[in-house]
Amino acid sequence: MTPSMKSSATKIVALIALIGLALVPVIGSRAMVQDLFMVLTMLVLALNWNMLAGFAGLVSVGQQAFVGIGAYGMFAAVILWGLDPLIGIVVGGIVAMALSIPVAFFAFRLNGAYFAIGTWVASETVRLLVAQWKALGGGTGTSLPKGTTKDMFGVDVIKDLIDGSSSAAADALTYWLALALAAATLLAGYMFLRSRMGLGLQAIRDNAEAAKSVGVDPTRLKALVFVLCAFGTGICGALLFIQITRVTPDAAFSVVDWTAFVIFITVIGGIGTLPGPIVGVIVFYALQRTLADYGTVYLIVLGLIGISVMLFARKGLWGMFSARTGIDLLSLRHPAPRRP
Amino acid sequence: MSLLKLDNVSKSFGMLKVTDSVSFEVAKGEALGIIGPNGAGKSTLFNLITGNIAPDEGAVYLDGVDMTRKPAMSRVQAGVGRSFQIPQPFTHLSVFENLLVAANFGGGHHGHAADDFCMDILDQTGLAGVADATSGSLSLLQRKRLELARAMATSPKVILLDEIAGGLTEGECVSLIQTIKSIHASGTSIIWIEHVLHALTSVVERLMVLNFGKMLMIGDPAEVMDSPQVKEIYLGIEV
Ligand SMILES: Nc1ncnc2c1ncn2[C@@H]1O[C@H](COP(=O)(O)OP(=O)(O)O)[C@@H](O)[C@H]1O
Ligand SMILES: [Mg+2]
């Protein structure tokens, strides 16, 4: 296959997958819609974390700060300002982006493991502050007012479309938003990495000193990625908690749910590769389905698999597959122009 | 006004004074050679000019602008391009992409113009055949050529070349000299650290000798090479 055939084949497969997923609320069960909603939102978080850790070398374990503040931003928009939750999603993204600036200011002074710890400390600080926010329930949290999600913009139309209840329609709406967000995040990530900034980022990843010596400013590029990923993560947090409808500081700023699982997904799928998080989230979901009844054993198995992949297949399942077969989907390479 | 000026630049690593009150100027379009024994502080001098290392004392000017506190990336954008003595390619990027980064960020070239600009340099440096190869897979000689090519891609006003001729065959050396002469002919200033003296002296207009971090001498290459001091220190010949 020529590269252009391969790329059209990729596009066709992606389009079929997208259409298939888009049809789920129409033809699938509600449980399936809810399950896949979680899968898609985890994918969004993983794509963002992969961009940070896999491409910008920013190993953050504080991304729950942006999930949490995104969720609280959305709740504030709905409860305090009476806005539609869908507008609340945008508010959540913007608030997360605003928060990322002081976090970056603090954490970017630190390197490696200290950066990771610094982001976690920042997140804990924000969690403690939010727990003081009485208007949104303080430490015990709060719920969206009854009927909020059923009154969301678009639910009526969807209700007729899928011929179901208002809550099923609300689920379908959040599901489609998650699908759109996942697709947009993947596309934006791909386009960013293919751009000159993405090339600069890959140069920094290979050799930071040499990158500076050809004019790349590592701090500036990394800060840009950090802020953009906070925006994506915040939007995802807001969307997640529209579906969950109830928020507490502990749930919204959970390091296990929004960062540990996300790291697992990215690492087993293939950190620093674009298809990695997609593979990872599929494996994660399959494991969750098969092991969910075993309680803590489930977490132990996840941990063991994560460690084995880190030890024996450092580029993850996708990296291993790609190295064996030579298949490079969503390639970031810039081929040299052919000249006579 | 000179293009590049160093004013009493000093640098120590611990107790070791590696650069000792060095002052010199390079005019626009001039080619300066630097020689000196291993460990004399030649590469460190480059790092001080490019901003990879900060000096303890003294100042570095480009086009009359004080660059001493500017980070490496601003100096590249202002026109200081460099090669590393030990090649530092972006190993996961292709040869072409290595140049593309430099052209985009250092040289201010964008889009198709950047592509063409990089391909011209690859042609000129004999790397066009491996343009799509991962730079991590190159031989040492090819990596050295890539160092030169990548420095050229930053569109420098002054290009700093650190021992790029070592280990070349006679034929390769001739083509390298040709490439450097054509850089020179295009009006770019050159500072070239080199042990391969015949290559160096066939290009440069002035020669500097560095020993124990001190600038011993600077001037006409033939006169410098003839001086008893240089023969003794640099070539280890008792006079
Ligand atoms: N980053 C550094 N830290 C400590 N010592 C260094 C460093 N860089 C160079 N040196 C020392 O400085 C001296 C000069 O090195 P260098 O500038 O590379 O010399 P040259 O290029 O002339 O061979 C050597 O003794 C070297 O070991
Ligand atoms: Mg040296």
UniProtKB/TrEMBL annotation, chain A:
<feature type="transmembrane region" description="Helical">
    <location>
        <begin position="262"/>
        <end position="287"/>
    </location>
</feature>
<feature type="transmembrane region" description="Helical">
    <location>
        <begin position="294"/>
        <end position="313"/>
    </location>
</feature>
<dbReference type="GO" id="GO:0005886">
    <property type="term" value="C:plasma membrane"/>
</dbReference>
<feature type="transmembrane region" description="Helical">
    <location>
        <begin position="173"/>
        <end position="193"/>
    </location>
</feature>
<feature type="transmembrane region" description="Helical">
    <location>
        <begin position="113"/>
        <end position="133"/>
    </location>
</feature>
<dbReference type="InterPro" id="IPR001851">
    <property type="entry name" value="ABC_transp_permease"/>
</dbReference>
<dbReference type="InterPro" id="IPR043428">
    <property type="entry name" value="LivM-like"/>
</dbReference>
<keyword id="KW-0812">Transmembrane</keyword>
<feature type="transmembrane region" description="Helical">
    <location>
        <begin position="38"/>
        <end position="58"/>
    </location>
</feature>
<protein>
    <submittedName>
        <fullName>Branched-chain amino acid transport system permease protein</fullName>
    </submittedName>
</protein>
<keyword id="KW-1133">Transmembrane helix</keyword>
<keyword id="KW-1003">Cell membrane</keyword>
<dbReference type="Pfam" id="PF02653">
    <property type="entry name" value="BPD_transp_2"/>
</dbReference>
<feature type="transmembrane region" description="Helical">
    <location>
        <begin position="223"/>
        <end position="242"/>
    </location>
</feature>
<feature type="transmembrane region" description="Helical">
    <location>
        <begin position="65"/>
        <end position="83"/>
    </location>
</feature>
<feature type="transmembrane region" description="Helical">
    <location>
        <begin position="89"/>
        <end position="108"/>
    </location>
</feature>
<keyword id="KW-0472">Membrane</keyword>
<dbReference type="GO" id="GO:0015658">
    <property type="term" value="F:branched-chain amino acid transmembrane transporter activity"/>
</dbReference>
TrEMBL record, chain B:
<dbReference type="GO" id="GO:0015188">
    <property type="term" value="F:L-isoleucine transmembrane transporter activity"/>
</dbReference>
<dbReference type="GO" id="GO:0016887">
    <property type="term" value="F:ATP hydrolysis activity"/>
</dbReference>
<dbReference type="InterPro" id="IPR051120">
    <property type="entry name" value="ABC_AA/LPS_Transport"/>
</dbReference>
<keyword id="KW-0547">Nucleotide-binding</keyword>
<protein>
    <submittedName>
        <fullName>Branched-chain amino acid transport system ATP-binding protein</fullName>
    </submittedName>
</protein>
<feature type="domain" description="ABC transporter">
    <location>
        <begin position="4"/>
        <end position="237"/>
    </location>
</feature>
<dbReference type="Pfam" id="PF00005">
    <property type="entry name" value="ABC_tran"/>
</dbReference>
<dbReference type="InterPro" id="IPR003439">
    <property type="entry name" value="ABC_transporter-like_ATP-bd"/>
</dbReference>
<keyword id="KW-0067">ATP-binding</keyword>
<dbReference type="GO" id="GO:0042941">
    <property type="term" value="P:D-alanine transmembrane transport"/>
</dbReference>
<keyword id="KW-0813">Transport</keyword>
<dbReference type="InterPro" id="IPR003593">
    <property type="entry name" value="AAA+_ATPase"/>
</dbReference>
<dbReference type="GO" id="GO:1903805">
    <property type="term" value="P:L-valine import across plasma membrane"/>
</dbReference>
<dbReference type="GO" id="GO:1903806">
    <property type="term" value="P:L-isoleucine import across plasma membrane"/>
</dbReference>
<dbReference type="GO" id="GO:0005524">
    <property type="term" value="F:ATP binding"/>
</dbReference>
<dbReference type="GO" id="GO:0005304">
    <property type="term" value="F:L-valine transmembrane transporter activity"/>
</dbReference>
<dbReference type="GO" id="GO:0015808">
    <property type="term" value="P:L-alanine transport"/>
</dbReference>
<dbReference type="GO" id="GO:0015192">
    <property type="term" value="F:L-phenylalanine transmembrane transporter activity"/>
</dbReference>
<dbReference type="InterPro" id="IPR027417">
    <property type="entry name" value="P-loop_NTPase"/>
</dbReference>
<dbReference type="GO" id="GO:0005886">
    <property type="term" value="C:plasma membrane"/>
</dbReference>
